[in-house]
Design a protein that fits this description.
By secondary structure, the protein is an alpha/beta fold. It has a single domain (about 10-340), classed as Rossmann fold (3-Layer(aba) Sandwich), CATH 3.40.50.720. It is built from twelve helices and 13 strands. The chain has helices spanning about 20-35, 75-80, 95-100, 105-125, 160-175, 200-210, 230-240, 260-270, 295-300, 310-320, 325-330, 335-340, and strands at about 10-15, 40-45, 65, 85-90, 130-135, 180-185, 190, 215, 220-225, 225, 245-250, 255, 275-280. The strands form four sheets. Strands 3-2-1-4-5-6-11 form a seven-stranded parallel β-sheet, with helices on both faces. It has a two-stranded parallel sheet with strand order 7-10. Strands 8-13 form a two-stranded parallel ribbon. Strand 5 (about 130-135), helix 5 (about 160-175) and strand 6 (about 180-185) form a beta-alpha-beta unit. The chain is globular, with a radius of gyration of 19 Å. It starts with 11 loop residues before the first strand and ends with a helix. The chain binds nicotinamide-adenine-dinucleotide. Nicotinamide-adenine-dinucleotide binds near residues 16, 22 and 94.
């Protein structure tokens, strides 16, 4: 899908899961980068979907919010019937721990929801479908090696398996029906608006509250951290210039152990390492992820701009300045608020 120029009316992009962490960052990014585009945000407002993430842009005439489910065919059809140029599918159940407790919802949203979007995109002849996937579909690495786009899929958690299944469904729709779709597989993101059940915002907010910082196992699991704005730029490049049917790995070139990350947070906030508490390891906890994103770099000219040291400082500063944002979530007031505002979710 070519970029809209400043003179045309712009494209209409359906962003699913736009009230979540990466989706909301992507909407902010797109509105700034392509002011002539229209964005339709379809989000069910699950426990981690938060309209506060978009309050600064909610009044823009180019942004429309639809509260709804990607697995609800009628809703998706109604939206696509208005004319949509591209779909960027962020909507998902995304927390590994929750998938271990109860995989059911992960299959419904991540697999069946994606399949409904694919069906309806095909029906409406949407010209580009971007499936936002994850490095977790590749499984776990030892001390060396990297994931390439050709690495076999070996998902270890129900979350990762549901994302891998969705990727395979996207592939099947490309091969069978010829739909124009691409798949992105990104490493661990961090930045503003991340729900405080995930490692970095949990540790920052706990440290700010002088609570213990629970670290799984020995804390030596390695993730390749990417600043969320870099991820948004990569999706922009792939949305507009990615080649139909291709998979693109996205990485941050910033491998860190969980313990390194936690210590960096404590150090920046001037809090003692005695707040760290090692807890029983997560079941099936992947040891190491590392991304080879040379395909994206060589073919589309993207690479991350923000180092981990810069990104973590900016992220910590945001959580310090936006304490009410995460305090409301952690206190549970936030959920009550949405039930009041939007009824049963
Ligand atoms: N966070 C990461 O580090 C990371 C890394 C790689 C890939 N991803 C992928 O990026 C996407 C977004 O991740 P995130 O961290 O922003 O997740 P998130 O949990 O913060 O947001 C998910 C959003 O999807 C919405 N949603 C859930 N079910 C829905 C449904 N049935 N219909 C419509 N909306 C629904 C939620 O309300 C929420 O707003 C996911 O697909 C995830 O697999 C995340």
């Amino acid at each position: 899908m070519a970029e809209g120029t400043g003179t045309d009316k712009g494209k209409t992009i359906l962003v699913t899961g736009g009230c979540g962490f990466i989706g909301s960052n992507f909407i902010h990014y797109m509105l700034a980068r392509y002011p002539q585009y229209r964005i339709i945000n379809l989000d069910i407002l699950s426990y981690c979907g938060n309209l506060d993430n978009l309050c600064e842009v909610a009044d823009r005439p180019t942004v429309t919010f639809v509260k709804g489910d990607i697995a609800d065919r009628e809703t998706v059809r109604r939206i696509l019937g208005k004319g949509v140029d591209a779909i960027v599918n962020f909507a998902a159940e995304s927390h590994v721990d929750r998938s271990i407790e109860d995989p059911n919802l992960f299959l419904r949203t991540n697999v069946l929801g994606t399949q409904v979007l694919l069906d309806e995109a095909r029906e409406a002849a949407v010209s580009r479908f971007v499936q936002i996937s994850t490095d977790e579909v590749y499984g776990s690495l030892g001390a060396s090696g990297v994931f390439t786009e050709d690495t076999p899929l070996k998902p270890n958690s129900p979350y990762a398996a549901s994302k891998a299944a969705a990727d395979l469904m996207v592939r099947a729709y490309i091969e069978t029906y010829g739909i124009d779709a691409v798949i992105t597989r990104c490493s661990n993101n961090y930045g503003r608006y991340q729900f405080p059940e995930k490692l970095i915002p949990l540790m920052i907010s706990n440290a700010l509250e002088d609570r213990e910082l629970p670290v799984y196992g020995d804390g030596l699991n390695v993730r390749d951290w990417i600043y969320v704005e870099d991820h948004c730029q990569a999706i922009d490049a792939i949305l507009h210039r990615g080649v139909k049917g291709e998979i693109y790995n996205i990485g941050g070139a910033s491998e860190r152990t969980n313990l390194d990350v936690v210590k960096a947070i404590l150090h920046t906030l001037g809090k003692p390492e005695t707040l760290i508490r090692f807890v029983k390891d997560r079941l099936g906890h992947d040891r190491r992820y590392a991304m080879d994103f040379s395909k994206l770099k060589n073919e589309l000219g993207w690479e991350p701009n923000v180092t981990f040291e810069q990104g973590i400082q900016q992220t910590i500063a945001w959580y310090v300045e936006h304490r009410p944002w995460w305090e409301r979530i952690k206190s549970g007031e936030y959920l009550e608020y949405y039930e009041r505002m939007y009824g049963n979710r």
